[in-house]
Design brief:
This protein is mainly beta and about 325 residues long. The protein has a domain of about 220 residues: Methylamine Dehydrogenase, Chain H (7 Propeller). About 0% of the residues lie in helices and about 50% in strands.
Length: about 325
């Protein structure tokens, strides 16, 4: 059953700035927050069908669907022992979910309410599934923190591969040309997937033990990566194999989620400051900070659509939608 909650709306005339002044006309945003069920622990959020935000209710084994216009939600149970981690919008408007509890890729069709569950091969063991992305051919690639990555097509045919350095595969993304890259948190490397063979090329970051957690491609195909251990935002440019790094502001930052919006601004969450930070690659400046809606909001993933950015707060059982102004 849909439940309606009073939304907390904050219209800000300008952003809090980490480095240098930003005029209200240069950068403004509005935030809107919805309270989700207590104990749901929303882990990831993603654009769903037009007018919807999808989120994974990790502790309640469900996919959440937020109607943006009415600002209401409902949750769809995904099966026994479900503990969903990531969700992305796939072909035919279906939700594709990495479900650590079921050790399976789950597909949900909002039109028919049908749920497909494709379990990993028994020999793969428990994968601690993390995140998924679609390549240029519409194949769903995914990561598992216990040392695997894999792919499954729309018919459910699956292949699973072992990361060369074992435990750690975490964030994953597709580039504008449809290639697949992932990062390893424990292995602290970036990996490019050969979509034909399933093999990977490993690329080491400039700082040992950086703890690469999430990766996202911008419109030029450059990769933006969060360094959980190093407290840095990284850029890797595949065209010339060059790295750049940028310190997060503040003391002992912990960079978790990363996302590049339609303007090519880079969004990063910092668990230490309890803020989401926005970085302008052109000026190489932090241009905004957005506080969590409560203490220890713990935004673990960011996605968006158009001028909207979605921040699932696993620590407050809330979801924040940020609308960026002109």
């Amino acid at each position: 059953m849909d439940r309606l909650f009073v939304a907390l709306v904050l219209a800000l005339s300008s952003a809090n700035v980490a480095a240098g002044p930003v005029s209200p006309s240069e950068y403004s945003f509005e935030t809107k927050v919805i309270q989700l069920p207590e104990g749901s622990r929303p882990h990831d959020a993603a654009p769903g069908r037009p007018g919807e935000i999808w989120y994974t209710a990790q502790r309640q084994g469900a996919l959440g669907i937020v109607d943006i216009d009415s600002w209401t939600f409902r949750q769809v149970p995904l099966g026994k022992d479900s503990a969903p981690h990531g969700v992305v919008l796939g072909p035919q408007g279906k939700a594709w979910i990495t479900d650590g509890g079921q050790n399976a890729i789950v597909r949900y069709d909002p039109a028919s309410e049908a749920i497909d569950v494709w379990e990993l091969p028994e020999e793969s063991g428990y994968a601690n599934l993390n995140t998924g992305a679609f390549d240029a051919d519409g194949v769903h690639w995914f990561t598992g923190q216990n040392g695997i990555y894999g792919k499954v097509d729309t018919s459910g045919v699956m292949e699973v591969f072992a990361d060369p350095e074992g435990r750690g595969p975490y964030g994953i993304d597709d580039t504008p040309d449809g290639e697949i890259w992932y990062v390893s948190l424990a292995g602290s490397h970036l990996a490019k997937v050969n979509r034909e063979t399933g093999s990977v090329t490993l690329i080491e970051p400039p700082h040992e033990g950086a703890g690469l957690r999430r990766v996202w491609a911008d419109s030029a195909g450059d990769l933006w990566i969060s360094g959980w251990n190093s407290g840095k935002l990284y850029r890797y440019r595949p065209t010339d194999n060059q790295w750049a790094s940028f310190d997060l502001p503040g003391d002992q930052p912990k960079a978790y989620a990363v996302y590049v919006d339609e303007r090519d601004d880079v969004w990063v969450t910092d668990f230490t400051s309890n803020h989401t930070l926005v970085f302008d690659p052109e000026s190489e400046r932090w241009i905004a900070t957005i506080p969590g809606s409560g203490p220890n909001a713990n935004v673990r993933q960011i996605l968006g659509r158009g001028d909207q950015v979605y921040l699932p707060e696993s620590g407050t059982d809330r979801l924040m939608m940020v609308t960026v102004g002109n």
